[in-house]
């Protein structure tokens, strides 16, 4: 196996992607167990809207959740979408995409969430990976990417559409909307050249 994931075989990428995402989701459960054991002391480290201290919550919020049900709701789509993104594009590009989504989504949440609110959870990243995967294939003009994007849109498109609507005051539609937009933007920022036509 090469030291750079750009030269890995598809099987190597799939194994690395599976290991990464299983570890990532397991970490979310461990963090929530620690949060539960400490009387939910970690919840305050989320994104506090328009508070200077709240900016430190931007990189932390995707790893924190309001209970085990919250982790479960985000864990499965994060596992699936993260695996697909990492397996198709490689670990390095996947991590760069995640960093962009987390930063852009977090800043949007910080700016536009209701006053005195604290936002945590991986759903912004989930929506971002959805947007990235749906747009990526079309941007790069690759048949496999387009097929994956269409399949993902068919499975989760309705849920995503409902998730960006401000219908539930207990759910951060801002995180969903900014995550989706950041993921779509990441598809352009991290695109690979289209294959040459012969």
What does this protein look like?
With 198 residues, the chain is an all-alpha fold. The chain has a single domain, classed as Rhomboid-like (Rhomboid-like fold, Up-down Bundle), CATH 1.20.1540.10. The protein is 67% helix and 2% strand. The chain has helices at residues 10-37, 57-60, 68-89, 91-112, 123-140, 143-163, 173-189; strands spanning 47-48, 118-119. Strands 1-2 form a two-stranded antiparallel sheet. Helix 3 (68-89) packs across helix 4, helix 3 (68-89) packs parallel to helix 5 (123-140) and helix 5 (123-140) packs parallel to helix 7. The model has no long low-confidence stretch (mean pLDDT 93).
Strand order in the sheet with the most strands:
1-2
Shape: globular
CATH class: Mainly Alpha
Count up the helices: 7
| Average pLDDT level | 93
Distance between the termini: 30 Å
Number of domains: 1
CATH architecture annotation:
Up-down Bundle
Low-pLDDT parts are: none
The secondary-structure element order is HEHHHEHHH
The CATH superfamily appears as Rhomboid-like
**How many individual β-strands?**
2
Over all CA atoms, what is the radius of gyration?
17 Å
Percentage of residues in helical conformation: 55-70%
Instruction: Report the portion of residues in β strands.
Output: under 5%
Question: How would you characterize the largest beta sheet?
Answer: 2 strands, antiparallel
Structural class designation: mainly alpha
Query: What is the CATH topology classification name?
Result: Rhomboid-like fold
